[in-house]
Amino acid sequence: MKTLGLVVLSLTAALIIAASAITFTSYSYNAGSPEACTGSPADKGTCAKPECHKGTASFKAGLITSTIPVAGYTAGQVYTITAKVTGAATAKKFGFQVSPQNSTGKLLGTMVPINTTETKLTNKGKYICHKDLGTEGKGSKTWTFKWTAPAAGTGKVTFYGCFLIGGKPELIYTSKLEIKEAV
């Protein structure tokens, strides 16, 4: 009987030691999303991939809005862009990435974070995304940034974005805002 007790105790101790040695990989990217996940034609992907977040991305209009007039942007003018995602009232974790591009993926205009505690630029200013302190919310999360319109003659600009609502299941959305150049 003593031997059986020692065997059980030894196996239990071995399992505890083995379990404590296991590390789990988290793909939450609290410090900011990896680059090229906006769902734009040039990015060819979103954060819905095995090394990032589980699930599939679905399109949802209206997640990106702006102060740009309906007539279009004026070269060199500064506008405010808002990225907002809403989930269930219990949702507490959120993420985003936005980039103003043309159809070939070229960055158009210049972005500047308004709240540098919650957002940051990546890839030499091509993308703006959340930082660790910019992921908390209660049912929704809003991020804003400034955008300086590109040179005259640039034409249409599309803001592509990918948004995450944490939880089980994680919800992933893409959205876009197409802006024409004022004539």
Main traits of this protein?
single chain, mainly beta, four-stranded antiparallel β-sheet, 10 strands
Structural features, described:
This protein is mainly β and 183 residues long. Helix content is 11%, strand content 34%. It has one helix at residues 2-21; strands spanning 57-59, 64-66, 78-86, 94-101, 110-113, 119-122, 127-130, 140-148, 157-165, 171-179. The chain has a six-stranded mixed β-sheet, with no helix packed on it. It has a four-stranded antiparallel β-sheet with strand order 2-3-8-5, with no helix packed on it. A hairpin with a 5-residue loop joins β9 (157-165) and β10. The longest helix has 20 residues, at 2-21. It is globular, with a radius of gyration of 22 Å.
Layout of secondary structure:
Elements: H1 2-21, E1 57-59, E2 64-66, E3 78-86, E4 94-101, E5 110-113, E6 119-122, E7 127-130, E8 140-148, E9 157-165, E10 171-179
Parallel strand pairs: 1-10
Antiparallel strand pairs: 2-3, 3-8, 4-7, 4-9, 5-8, 6-7, 9-10
